[in-house]
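Fig. S4 source data, part A: sequence.
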Amino acid sequence: MHISDTDINPAEDKDNKKESITKEEKQAENEQVSEKKINDVNEMIIKLDKEIKELKEAKKLQEEIKRLDKLIQEIIRSHMLSNRDAILMLCCVYVFQNKQALV
């Protein structure tokens, strides 16, 4: 038995078309959602990459601050050693003045 185009039930044909359209709409919607998720992930990657660069720069600055702090401490230590007689004299004067103020 051969089925012709006229033998197809029109209601059944409408259901098949609706089902086909619905599947296509769902597929298009899924593609849009997937594309949005990919874009969101790409934006997050860009933000994280920027944060990593900023943290690396901050780490470099922190290391430079430590280096300069050590250098300053060494300069102060050197200055104190080279001027220890003057520092001792100032300390003695300070103690003597405070002692007299108490009397």
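Fig. S4 source data, part B ends here. The chain has a mean pLDDT of 83.
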